[in-house]
Amino acid sequence: MKNLILIPLYLLTSFNGWASKGPFFGVVPDETPRLLAPNLIMSPFTEYNGAFNPAGTEFYYTISIPGKIQGFQGIIAYTQLKKDGTWSPPLIAPFSGEYSDYDPIFSPDGSKLYYSSRRPLPNKPESIQNNVWFVERNDHGWGQPQLIKLTDKGNTYNSLTRSGTLYFNTWSTGEMLTADKKKDGTYEIKTLPFPVNSEGNYDGDPFVSPEGDYLIFRRDRGQGTLGKGDLFITFNIKGVWTDPENLGEPINSKDHEMCPSVTPDGKIFIFSSNRKYADYQLNPNTPVIDIIDKYKSADNGRENIYYMSTGFIEKFRQRHIRQ
């Protein structure tokens, strides 16, 4: 772990310099999904689940590389805005690199960073199950990882309301749940009610808005999906969740969409997709080197991080307000 922290991630990728400038990479979102800072974070590896701090001056995301457990290892990487307005080469986060870590997201005030990890539990070194952890800022950066004790069913992909309610999913059951901290330090766990969780669907990746008034999540090959996994939205109106609605194209596709989030300023929607811009050319007598070269590129069918405007959220919400 100590050595990994010092390895710039651009040494592991096809990184060719970077031009993104200003907070939030200087992007101006519209209704078209676009690759987020491809010259900085895009690589032949799988990248997903990106999150900015409230000021838009830090960006944390997950890179998946070959590993011993389940065939992959997640690494949390980060880049920071420099004084000259450019962004630093990505580095492995100081709390990541030893175990499989993924799904970073900031608390609404930016003081904590929550993430999922297969790191062993305290006094239980044989444990390799997913759990939710967090690190807290101190005078020297991030403190030591702290476990949030939730369920024993594999807890992953969390987000947090401003009031402190944690939303997460249990990977083994495909359900989404909430957790509220009690005075004794334990958590009151509740399964999100129907129609958010529904029989026959495998749901997860819950992103809840800071005010808790909407939830965007991933549904794998369930009712009403376009591809392997689609993103859905539901609203909490007067304490009742609306029927989840598929976000549709151009957000969803015939491929796999996952890991939704919204920047703290509410302006940029971020998600991951394994859509390709060009298919592999597999015609007879096609040079195999062409296939190999495409696989080495970022357009190889692995997940990349996309962004667009959040304007669609209000459009979906208005449908329910008018009813």
Question: Could you explain the architecture of this structure?
Answer:
The chain has a single domain, classed as 6 Propeller (Neuraminidase). The strands form five sheets. Strands 6, 7, 8, 9 and 10 form a five-stranded antiparallel β-sheet that branches. Strands 15, 16, 17, 18 and 19 form a five-stranded antiparallel β-sheet that branches. By secondary structure, the chain is mainly beta. Strand 8 and strand 9 form a beta hairpin. 9% of the residues lie in helices and 38% in strands. The N terminus is likely disordered.
Please describe the topology of this protein.
Blueprint: H1 2-5, E1 34-35, H2 38-41, E2 46-52, E3 58-66, E4 72-80, E5 91-92, E6 101-106, E7 112-117, E8 131-138, E9 141-142, E10 146-148, E11 155-160, E12 166-170, E13 175-181, E14 187-191, E15 202-208, E16 214-220, E17 229-237, E18 240-241, E19 245-246, E20 257-262, E21 268-273, H3 288-296, E22 304-309, H4 311-321
Q: Helicity range of the residues?
A: under 10%
Q: How does the major sheet shape up? A: 5 strands, antiparallel
Choose one word for the global shape. globular
Q: In total, how many beta strands?
A: 22
Beta-strand content estimate = 35-45%
What class would the helix/strand composition place it in?
mainly beta
Q: What is the terminal separation in angstroms?
A: 54 Å
Count up the domains. 1
Q: Given the structure, what is the number of helices?
A: 4
Give the SSE order as H and E letters: HEHEEEEEEEEEEEEEEEEEEEEHEH
In the CATH scheme, the class would be Mainly Beta
Q: Please tell me how large the radius of gyration is.
A: 19 Å
Low-confidence stretches: 1-18
